[in-house]
Amino acid sequence: MKKRIAFVGAGALGGYVGGWFAHAGLEVTLIDPWPGHVETIRRSGLELDGVTPEEKVVVRPRILHVTEAQSLAKTPVDVAFVATKSYDTAWATELIKPYLAPEGFVVSLQNCLNEETIARIVGWGRVAGVVASLISVDLHAEGKIRRTVAKGGDKHTVFRVGEAHGRITARVEELVQWFRGIDSAKATGNLWGERWAKLVQNGMGNGVSAATGLTSSDCTRDPAIRRFQIALAGEGVRVGQALGYSMEKIRGLDPERLARANEGDAAALAEVEAALAPKPGANPRADIQRPSMAQDIRKGRRTEIEAMNGFIARKGAECGVPAPANAKLTQIVTRVERGEAQPSPALLELRA
Hints:
- This protein folds into two domains: 4-189, Rossmann fold, CATH 3.40.50; 198-348, N-(1-d-carboxylethyl)-l-norvaline Dehydrogenase, domain 2 (Orthogonal Bundle), CATH 1.10.1040.10.
- The longest helix has 20 residues, at 223-242.
- It has an eight-stranded mixed β-sheet, sandwiched between helices. A four-stranded mixed β-sheet has the order 4-3-10-9.
- By secondary structure, it is an alpha/beta fold.
- The protein is 41% helix and 17% strand.
- Helix 5 (170-180) links the parallel strand 11 and strand 12.
- It is built from 14 helices and twelve strands.
């Protein structure tokens, strides 16, 4: 019998993954709080797009308003993906908990470190995590989600699936097979190192684009902004090391090289800058690619800045590793989010 799969949150990533799962023939139910999005998918289907013609499909998964979740009582869920913003993790988990099958479990398909929040509600034995690395998707209109970077293929493993305890289980291996229908995927015994590496990756890009109003490529093209991003990453690496995480590569770079680049190692800085600077023609959608936090600012929504750079700064303070660039960016993006400032590179105060 097919596993019943639910996605609490059918936004950019949840809708993208859930849509492709449905396209592959899996039994998927999407749950979302945006009425117009839900009704558009019911009426016209969910339109998925990417950087190649083959990635453009229309799927028609079952979709529910949040207020209709109680209908799942008749069809308990085997695997529930929480794909909301980090600050919505608790209510999303509480929403789906009553409708889990006896062996059902919850998977965090999110940015940041949210597994502990989920575990407090359903227990550690019912939690797994998926890290979506170097992927960019955009819910640009009701019922329309587009991927703005190429698929990873053999160059980069996009989806990393793991258990909190680090063992490779049968349920993780099954999740990996599902995700391989979308892009490259693997089971990992280092979920926490993967999570922190992704946190640093997001921390050096998302908030900077949100604060400046620039695309990801325009941020890394600017030498002063690029140096600021390296400072964000270097701080994040040192905090992660102090917390005991064994980090995976970050944007293809060794974490230690990122930290040393921020600390004045000239060779490391040259290596990191060369890797971060955008390559002409590398991304055909570079002119529209903005990370999730920049998309939130443009839509007037709350951001995850406190769960990203704010979290790095707070953890750094706890373990005695200063992270001033992360603290500064958190303050700037919070001001923009509240409407106290407009996005601009000048907010970073990088030039005399």
